Amino acid sequence: MPPIAITPPAENETTTDLTTAGIKDALKKTAPSQLKSAALTDDITNLPPTPKTENGTETPLRELDASRLKCTYTTSPRPVPAAGSAEQASQRVCTDHMIQAHWTSSTGWQDPSLQPYGPLSLMPTASCLHYATECFEGMKLYRGYDGKLRLFRPELNCNRMLMSTNRIALPAFPPSELLKLIAALCATDGPKWLPRDNPGAFLYIRPTMIASDPALGVQRPNEALLFVILTCFPPMDHLPAGMNLLASHDDMCRAWPGGFGYAKVGANYGPSLLAQGEARSRGFHQILWLFGPDCAVTEAGASNFFVVWRSRAGVVQLVTAGLGDRIVLDGVTRRSVLELARGRLAAGEGYAGLERVEVVERTYTMQEVVEAAEEGRLIEAFAAGTAWFVAPVARIHFRGREFGVPMGKEGRMGEYTRVLKSWLRGIMWGVEGWEGHEWGHVVEEEE
Ligand SMILES: *Cc1c(COP(=O)(O)O)cnc(C)c1O
């Protein structure tokens, strides 16, 4: 066999960071307006050259532009399921309309459309059906107690969606344009599907991007489809007895350093459903995902996980896994819990009779949680995410041992959990006193 020729790296070439290089390349080709956004990349140097056409001019690829939205309204409106009905809980019912936008590597983004909700047309060779070239977001549209429709910190979801598309070689877009498209869909379907006389209700928003190339080759996609749908979704946080978690076994982990656990890509979820199904059939609500031989605590299902304990030094701490290893999702609810706790629970004397807490983001292990429980130092635990909102945890099963997590009196959730949840609830649903909070993004309704 002839020896394999290996080209030596060019003098100035860095071969260590393929992810960053790939992301820069994708941004340059799909949304150059995002290149300078400091929030997205730490280092925007050594940009690849912009692709040139045959006559030497730069290719004019079009960016996603919400102002070019074309609307086609349904002629067969769908019935709204009754609150609390099995139909509403089925998560099968979507509203009347959806958003779509197509992208190709040669033209960029085509004009987005708002159109009647319905099936997608894909070739069986479509990349997303074979290689998990799919990512998504999960948000909610809230009908407030002040009558307004609100999104909660939606710009964070749109930024995260861009990060996720970057990670799996899907095209980039200005996150503010995605937000405008989401708001347009909410303004169209919100008034009918979230009537003003039912405050406290919500719809679930699912922005999604898939690679739609009808070519089976394993390669970076040349065609993509962005779509946004609104679905009916049951409230999942009514758990008077608290959540029961089953800690993952050592034969499975959800995410690993160098992987993509920090991105909301479909590839993270399918492989976790086997364990989740097992947990459900044994009476648990979710898997508590551990990582590594030390059993570091990461997340609870598709929610971030928090514990409140008293340290051996006697300080009350709110603890959650850090984002440094990139195996935990940077949840919008997680961030908001941390920011509210730092602003309102960590300062001064504490809040309304609650002892002051120290807010800690770090790697911590199951052993530490077990010891805190055994030594009577475990105060509360909860899961936090858009779908489950803030749900208190009552019980954890860890490799053959089961231990209880304290809840509040008379089956209520613990006080730290309750206070944090009530602040978030206030902002999301425009509860009196919270209507003007900057995290609430009011959607102007079409009358
Ligand atoms: C979506 C998700 C969360 C929660 O994120 P939010 O932005 O708060 O909804 C947490 N962990 C995982 C793995 C998720 O997919």
Automatic annotation (TrEMBL):
<dbReference type="InterPro" id="IPR043131">
    <property type="entry name" value="BCAT-like_N"/>
</dbReference>
<dbReference type="InterPro" id="IPR018300">
    <property type="entry name" value="Aminotrans_IV_CS"/>
</dbReference>
<dbReference type="InterPro" id="IPR043132">
    <property type="entry name" value="BCAT-like_C"/>
</dbReference>
<keyword id="KW-0100">Branched-chain amino acid biosynthesis</keyword>
<dbReference type="InterPro" id="IPR001544">
    <property type="entry name" value="Aminotrans_IV"/>
</dbReference>
<dbReference type="GO" id="GO:0009098">
    <property type="term" value="P:L-leucine biosynthetic process"/>
</dbReference>
<dbReference type="InterPro" id="IPR036038">
    <property type="entry name" value="Aminotransferase-like"/>
</dbReference>
<dbReference type="GO" id="GO:0005739">
    <property type="term" value="C:mitochondrion"/>
</dbReference>
<keyword id="KW-0808">Transferase</keyword>
<feature type="region of interest" description="Disordered">
    <location>
        <begin position="30"/>
        <end position="66"/>
    </location>
</feature>
<comment type="similarity">
    <text>Belongs to the class-IV pyridoxal-phosphate-dependent aminotransferase family.</text>
</comment>
<dbReference type="GO" id="GO:0004084">
    <property type="term" value="F:branched-chain-amino-acid transaminase activity"/>
</dbReference>
<feature type="modified residue" description="N6-(pyridoxal phosphate)lysine">
    <location>
        <position position="264"/>
    </location>
</feature>
<dbReference type="GO" id="GO:0009099">
    <property type="term" value="P:L-valine biosynthetic process"/>
</dbReference>
<dbReference type="InterPro" id="IPR005786">
    <property type="entry name" value="B_amino_transII"/>
</dbReference>
<protein>
    <recommendedName>
        <fullName>Branched-chain-amino-acid aminotransferase</fullName>
        <ecNumber>2.6.1.42</ecNumber>
    </recommendedName>
</protein>
<keyword id="KW-0028">Amino-acid biosynthesis</keyword>
<dbReference type="Pfam" id="PF01063">
    <property type="entry name" value="Aminotran_4"/>
</dbReference>
<keyword id="KW-0663">Pyridoxal phosphate</keyword>
<keyword id="KW-0032">Aminotransferase</keyword>
